Amino acid sequence: MIEDIDLNTLSAAEMAKKLDAMHMLTKAWNNVTENAIRNSFAKAGFTKETPPETPMETAEPPNL
Predict the structure, then answer these.
(1) What pLDDT, on a 0 to 100 scale, did the predictor assign at position 27?
(2) Where is the composition biased (Low complexity) (predicted)?
């Protein structure tokens, strides 16, 4: 968008739409709580605890 502004390739209406979208994204992100992020990471399986290592399974090469 900065390049568009520098090159003057955006109309005022297009620039307003992009700025509105940026403000909505900022507002949405600011409404995300630390707890929501923590819960999302926990649900995805990311935790502070290191899981026990499991041996990696290797596939046998096919007999040709």
Answers:
(1) 95
(2) 55-64
